[in-house]
Amino acid sequence: MRPAAFVAGRESKQPCPTAHKPRDSDVDLGIKGKTAIVCGGSKGLGRGSAEKLAEAGVRIILNARSEGPLKETAAEIAKRYGVEVVPVAADVTTPEGREKLLEAAPNPDILVNNAGGPPPGVWSDWGEEEWQAAIRANMLSPIHLITAVLPGMIERRWGRIVNITSGSVKAPIPALGLSGAARSGLTGFVAGTSRQVARHGVTINNLLPGQHETARIESLMNNTAKSRGVTVEEARAAAYAANPAGRFGTTEEFGAACAFLCSAYAGYIVGQNLLLDGGAFNSTLG
To answer: What Rg value do the Cα atoms of the chain yield, rounded?
Structure first.
């Protein structure tokens, strides 16, 4: 059965009269009417990406595992931007979950891969089970989705794929070794594959987030505060001070970067790893 779609916060095909209307000064990204799959889209960076794509007039196939929060987010995005949003509750780390998602959108124009990272730890914490889970979630699942949608994109001679990975791919974070290793495998796959499909009008790129205002950063700040014996406010202040921007990123500005990479203007950006970390990675050439 086709998942129920939300438009203007209800199951309907009629746009909401109070939905967000682009201003004359808004940039037209050239993707209005296209269809995007956004994974992990019920909150955080995935939701930020879905919102900015919806703002550009893109029909959204919104995926997450928890049905309740997913449907709530889908209704809110549909109401705000007046686009169709189809929630698909599925675990894309499984073949069955990916099949369910692709049944809802067999021919997407845009794919945004996004999955939460495995728990932090040290090398001695991780055995076979932990490694398999990390590789399945943060490397193999996005690769399987990419290879599933590429043939159609190539045939239509247009497509955009963006993978939300992690700044730890660029600058290793010891406690995030599982995440960094698995996502680095995805990065290697993208490096070669993106250059094979670019001539067909299909681009594949990665977004590497640093610290952003999400539930995950709240958890990290709480853990940091406990380990250092300080308040959460003190832990946050120290993190701000350590970043050249003096703050964490927002999901809105992250989503805007994602939407641009999915736009009609990003056809010459191929196989890149865009770091969004406020300048935390200290390098002349990035």
So the answer is: 19
Closest CA to 61 of 15, 115, 113, 108: 108
Kindly give the residue spans of alpha helices, DSSP state H, lying in the chain: 44-55, 67-81, 95-104, 128-135, 141-156, 177-197, 215-228, 232-242, 251-261
Q: For residue 175, what is the DSSP state?
A: G
Per the DSSP assignment, residues forming a β-bridge with 162 are: 112, 205
- Measured distance CA(9)–CA(52) in Å, rounded: 17
Question: Does one domain contain both 63 and 185?
Answer: yes
Tokens coding 94: 């499984």
- Answer for the pair 251, 44: CB distance below 8 angstroms, yes or no: yes
In the chain, % of residues over pLDDT 70: 92
Residue 195 shares a structural domain with residue 220: no
- Name residue, tokens 């893109």: 58
Q: Does residue 76 sit in the same domain as residue 218? A: no
What are 44-54's pLDDT values in tens digits?
999 999 999 99
Q: What is the DSSP string of 200-239?
A: GTEEEEEEEE-SBSSHHHHHHHHHHHHHHT--HHHHHHHH
Q: Does any domain span residue 3?
A: no
Q: Are 263 and 162 in contact (CB under 8 A)?
A: no
**274: helix, strand or coil:** strand
Could you tell me the residue range of the domain that residue 225 belongs to?
214-248
Considering the entire predicted model, what is its pTM? 0.90
The single-letter code of the amino acid at 265 is Y
Q: How far is CA 206 from CA 166, 187, 222, 283, in A?
A: 9, 8, 28, 19
Residue 15 has pLDDT above 60, yes or no: no
